[in-house]
């Protein structure tokens, strides 16, 4: 009798763990492998300036956005998953577009050797009907490595003081911004 109870309990627990790993646990595991954190939340002071190019070829620094939460969705032209996630970036942009304390950009990680420019990134978005703004950075910029952008897509959130507070997937970034802003 004890043996049947033990085997039944073992099966139930195994099934529960299997279902958990196949759903929520799998996402946590992927986050840990890709972004070195289960939830995406992190705290990192960025020591080097991060320089972006805007569509008008204007140079923008991360420090230009002090006093705002800065959400950056990093992507490349060779990343199919990035393009699949654009509707979520659009949703995030639309949700916070009127919030003066949050700014949302996609960051096109261009491959200069291929002749990619910020205009090409903008064109990719426009052709697909997206309205969120685009910045650009060279794929080989050392700042990407410092902030942990080693795979695409990667969403980064900086706090109002310019400290990196989130690195992960767009879905978790949406949830975290709700926590931060109360929206």
Described by its quaternary structure, the protein is: single chain
- What is the CATH class name of the largest domain? Alpha Beta
Question: Low-confidence spans: pLDDT under 50, at least 5 residues?
Answer: none
Shape summary: elongated
Kindly report the average pLDDT value: 86
What is the end-to-end distance?
Answer: 54 Å
Strand order of the largest sheet: 1-8-7-4-5-6-2-3
Cα-based radius of gyration, to the nearest Å: 19 Å
Q: What is CATH's topology name of the largest domain? A: Glutaredoxin
Note the run of SSEs as H and E: HEEEEHEHEHEEH
Architecture of the largest domain, CATH level 2?
3-Layer(aba) Sandwich
Main β-sheet: number of strands, strand sense, barrel status?
8 strands, mixed
Number of helices: 5
Number of domains: 2
As a percent range, the share of strand residues is: 15-25%
| β-strand number | 8
CATH superfamily of the largest domain: Glutaredoxin
Structural class by SSE content = alpha+beta
Helix content: 40-55%
Describe the structure.
- This protein is an alpha+beta fold and 183 residues long.
- The chain folds into 2 domains: 1-35; 39-181, 3-Layer(aba) Sandwich (Glutaredoxin).
- The chain is 43% helix and 23% strand.
- The protein is built from 5 helices and 8 strands; from the N terminus they run αββββαβαβαββα.
- An 8-stranded mixed β-sheet has the order 1-8-7-4-5-6-2-3.
- Strand 7 (154-158) and strand 8 form a beta hairpin.
- The longest helix has 34 residues, at 2-35.
- The termini are far apart.
- The mean pLDDT is 86.
């Amino acid at each position: 009798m004890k043996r049947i109870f033990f085997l039944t309990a073992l099966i139930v627990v195994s099934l529960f763990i299997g279902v958990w790993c196949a759903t929520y646990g799998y996402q946590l595991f992927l986050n840990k492998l890709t972004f070195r954190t289960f939830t995406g939340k992190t705290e990192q002071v960025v020591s080097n300036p991060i320089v972006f190019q805007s569509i008008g070829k204007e140079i923008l620094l991360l420090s230009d956005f002090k006093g705002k939460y800065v959400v950056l969705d990093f992507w490349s032209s060779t990343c199919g998953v990035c393009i699949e996630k654009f509707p979520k970036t659009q949703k995030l942009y639309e949700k916070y577009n009127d919030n003066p304390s949050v700014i949302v950009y996609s960051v096109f990680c261009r491959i200069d050797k291929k002749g990619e420019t910020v205009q090409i990134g903008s064109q990719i978005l426009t052709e697909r009907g997206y309205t969120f703004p685009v910045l650009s950075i060279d794929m080989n910029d050392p700042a990407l490595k410092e902030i942990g952008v080693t795979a695409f897509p990667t969403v980064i959130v900086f706090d109002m003081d310019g400290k990196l507070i989130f690195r992960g997937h767009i879905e978790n970034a949406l949830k975290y911004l709700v926590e931060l802003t109360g929206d």
